[in-house]
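Dear colleague,

Following up on yesterday's call, I've attached the two folding results inline so they're easy to grep. Please treat them as preliminary; we haven't cross-checked anything against experimental data yet. The first protein's sequence and structure tokens come first.
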Amino acid sequence: MSVSAHYQSEEKTLTIQVEGDFNFKLVSDFRSVYKDMNNQSIKPVVDLRETKHIDSAALGMLINLRNYFGGDNAEVCILNCRPQIRKILTVARFDKLFEIK
């Protein structure tokens, strides 16, 4: 399990990658990759390509990320979901809060 991030200054995009299980054990690691960013001008992208499973703590972390970057005004994108993860996000109605690709 790991979290990493890459900031693309030209596009003002912060891409956060989660590898393995996205769960409670990653709370502080997940928060640490974006907490010092200027939240007004950055578009966060969460890449779940290497994520095998998410739990309710992960859903909370995604909501906290969205709130940090502007709440209802934030444009947070979630990319590369496995089918079972996409289903969890859809059942939780995250497709109404995030752009899921």
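Below is the second protein, in the same order (sequence, then structure):
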Amino acid sequence: MGDVALIIRVMPKSPEVDLALLTEKIRESVPRLNDVREEPIGFGLKALKIVVIVSDAAGESDTVEEDINAIEGVERAEIVELTLT
């Protein structure tokens, strides 16, 4: 078994959501967070694009996505890409 890098786009509920605070909440919830970047969407809204390293075991990527979606201030999190590391 190997590891997989998940690239996840995290959309905040509104432009007023503090992205630094949201990043800290994600760091607490997701243990193998590798990278975080802000991505402009439009009309002042920015998303977070994060990279999380997980085992390629079945279902682990879904668990990470569900954990992030449960964080207050997150509208939705979706895996946009994955690759073997």
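For the second protein, one point worth flagging: The mean pLDDT is 91.

Best wishes,
A.L.
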